[in-house]
Write a structure and sequence with these properties.
Length: about 270
């Protein structure tokens, strides 16, 4: 016959397991909700009416307005990478490998990943805060009353714009990073611009450029999708605006790392 102490131990074990299972359950519920939101996006994407003007406006706001920050980040990244790598390569007498090293590092991994994280911080959280503010002020409800599909107008256009503009920003950021690397190489050396970029492109292969470009498309889609999801489904009034922006950045950054890991694993099968 079980004693009171045994019953108490069983109750504590059950409550402990429930305590640890609760965040796991919440995580999978959140992933399920985001997946349903993505399916709704693809459903609305191919149905008229097509908001081309709003898409162009959002591409300008998300892309052009983010270019200065991403450009400065890329420029500094190229300089820092050369400065930090020079002593190690110099100890092996391999300073001539600096252009090849910086090109492969930036094009393959650092350029897309860092630009995507900056994009998630600026654009993803901005989208979430904007949509949450629209929900708090009942602008989304006003669109529905006036006969406008708010999901089509404010969600689909922003996700498409983020998906299109991030690859463009990454290309520009990579180019600026490589030029920053050229300036850093010449701080303690003397190499012409033509020779530097010749060595840069000689070190690159199709398997370096194409996978890096493709994964930026998925990065942009993830940032736009998560930002719109948390903004469109925000709650708790004005408090929800800050919460939506924070969740968008956190989960957007995590999704970038997960997608990057998957891209590396898939790419490794073809190299």
């Amino acid at each position: 016959m079980p004693t009171g102490l045994e019953n108490k131990s069983e109750t504590v074990a059950v409550s402990s397991s429930a305590y640890f299972l609760k965040p796991v359950k919440a995580f999978f519920e959140e992933v399920t909700a985001i997946t349903r939101f993505a399916f709704r996006f693809f459903k609305e994407l191919f149905m008229p009416r097509y908001e081309l003007k709003e898409l162009i406006r959002q591409s300008y706001l998300l892309g052009y307005k983010s270019l200065p920050l991403i450009a400065v980040t890329g420029f500094i990244m190229g300089i820092v990478l050369i400065i930090q790598s020079r002593p190690t390569l110099a100890s092996f007498g391999a300073e001539s490998w600096l252009p090849a090293m910086v090109s492969v590092s930036i094009i393959r991994e650092m350029g897309p990943a860092i630009a995507a994280l900056i994009f998630a911080g600026k654009v993803g959280s901005g989208i979430a805060a904007e949509l949450a503010s629209m929900k708090v002020t009942e602008q989304i409800d006003a669109m529905e009353v006036s006969g406008i599909n708010p999901f089509k107008y404010i969600v689909v256009t922003r996700i498409i714009a983020a998906t299109i503009m991030l690859p463009v920003l990454v290309i520009l950021s990579d180019a600026i990073s490589l030029y920053g690397g050229f300036l850093a190489v010449n701080l303690k050396g003397d190499i012409s611009l033509h020779l530097y970029f010749s060595q840069v492109f000689q070190a690159l292969a199709f398997t370096d450029i194409f996978p890096a470009f493709i994964k930026t498309i998925f990065f942009g889609f993830a940032v736009g999708l998560i930002g719109c999801y948390y903004g469109y489904n925000s709650a708790h009034g004005t408090e929800g605006v800050g919460k939506a922006a924070n969740q968008s950045f956190v989960y957007g950054s995590i999704s970038i790392f997960v997608l990057d890991m998957m891209a590396v694993q898939i790419t490794s099968f073809f190299i």
